[in-house]
Amino acid sequence: MATTEVAASLILLRLSTDTENGSNPVTIVCETDSEAGIDTSVTETQTKRCGTLVAVQSPTGTITLNGVVDATPDAGEASLQQLMIWASNRTKLWAEYLNESDGGSIDEGDGIYMQGLGYLTSVRSTSTAGDTQKFSMGFSFSGAINTALES
User: Fold this and answer.
1) Contact 104, 53 (CB under 8 A)
2) Alpha-carbon gap, residue 18 to 84, rounded angstroms
3) What ranges do the domains of the chain cover?
4) Residue range 47-105, pLDDT digits in tens
5) What is the rounded distance in angstroms from the CA atom of residue 65 to the CA atom of residue 97?
6) Pick the CATH number of 8-146 from 2.40.30, 2.40.50, 2.60.290, 3.30.1120
7) Exposure check for the chain: N or C terminus, fewer CB within 10 A?
């Protein structure tokens, strides 16, 4: 069986303030790397007469992303400044983390797809002498996380 790898350059995060439809989403400028995941806690309670009872908590999803600051992003791109505004105003955001199509064997969302509402949980800037300004951000889903691209 052949392996079809998804290039990291195809992965992107889209954010929108339109929490109903996600219209006019923006991507993050000059992203260098990102990580996304879903975690679910399981609690086991040992009882005397009923055996072990298991409770599964609701899943939580997070995205972390790093990049290089671009002070003049193009239309359709979010700057570090915009991320900081959304974080400080506690703006609820529509988010979509997915792979784009490679125009051939990989369709949009084949490798990864996460979509839902949530909040920026951290936005940080790093400035080191002799280097470019960099940033990191964290996003946490609040509520349902869609993991299948709707056709």
Assistant:
1) no
2) 18
3) 8-146
4) 999 999 999 998 999 999 999 999 899 999 999 999 999 999 999 999 999 998 888 88
5) 11
6) 2.40.30
7) N
